[in-house]
Amino acid sequence: MSAAPRLLDVNVDMGESFGRWRLGDDAALMPYISSANIACGFHAGDPTTMRETVGHAVAHGLQIGAHVALPDLLGFGRRRMAVGAEELRDYCLFQLGALRAFVEAEGGELGHVKPHGALYVMCSADPELAGAVAAAIAETDLSLDFLLLNTDTNAAVGAHGVRLVPEAFADLEYEADGSLIIERAKRPWDPERVAARALRVAEEGLVETRGGVLATEAPTVCLHGDAPNAVATARAVHARLEAAGVRVTRLREVLASRCPPASVADGPPR
């Protein structure tokens, strides 16, 4: 009997245009990925962009996630803000409700939540803020998974009955301590280097850092749709994974194929 294929989710931040200002080519990216994190209006995205992006994601069979952010259109959500836990819970609940309405209108289903930019870094380092996002998820739908860099805030998230899922980044640098180096404006990376990094996550459970490597149990790898060569990069990642026998598939299917990994075992059953 042949072994079951290895699975990996590839998620991309999408729907980040606003009004007449266009960013990225989401439709061209979608054939090469399995999950879409869609901006909800706070760092980017407007109602029409949200509906269009959701519609394309549903048509391509992608898992849809809410890409919640700080209210920072001018800084594209990549600037830190002084925000309390209760404020953040309400910011996220507002964004979740907006995107969920478009997902349901387009006949889709919301599957996960992922903070954007500065909020992602803040939540990864602060259990209180991570717990605030989890509280908004719990008030919306406990079946939604919560994506973050690592599981250091697992207790705060799990206290709300929400499952925390770690992810890896193929097109961002890591510091030696495992923290991410956020690019204010996404620069192009060599697609083959990104593909090799994604494959290493799938095959070895390792990501490169400045000065070494870091172990990860991440079932999903993130790429950035606002990179100038995002489509070429996604195409290269998909080709490298599939050639190595790693099937690109939606996050929930990857999680269901595991037994489950220790990093997400403390969450509610699915």
Descriptive terms for the model:
11 strands, TIM Barrel, globular, single chain, 270 residues, 19% strand, two-stranded antiparallel ribbon, alpha/beta, disordered C terminus
At CATH level 2, the architecture is: Alpha-Beta Barrel
The CATH homologous superfamily is termed: Glycoside hydrolase/deacetylase
Supply the number of structural domains. Answer: 1
CATH topology name, in short, is TIM Barrel
Using the alpha-carbon principal axes, give the shape: globular
Determine Rg (CA atoms, Å). 17 Å
Task: Describe the fold and architecture.
It is a single chain. With 270 residues, the chain is an alpha/beta fold. It has a single domain, classed as Alpha-Beta Barrel (TIM Barrel), CATH 3.20.20.370. 37% of the residues lie in helices and 19% in strands. The chain contains 9 helices and 11 strands. Strands 1, 2, 3, 4, 5, 6, 7, 10 and 11 form a 9-stranded parallel beta sheet that branches. It has a two-stranded antiparallel ribbon with strand order 8-9. Helix 3 runs parallel beside helix 5, helix 4 packs across helix 5 (127-140) and helix 7 (191-204) runs parallel beside helix 8. The radius of gyration is 17 Å and the shape is globular. The chain starts with 5 loop residues before the first strand and ends in a 13-residue tail after the last helix. Mean pLDDT is 91; it is low at 261-270.
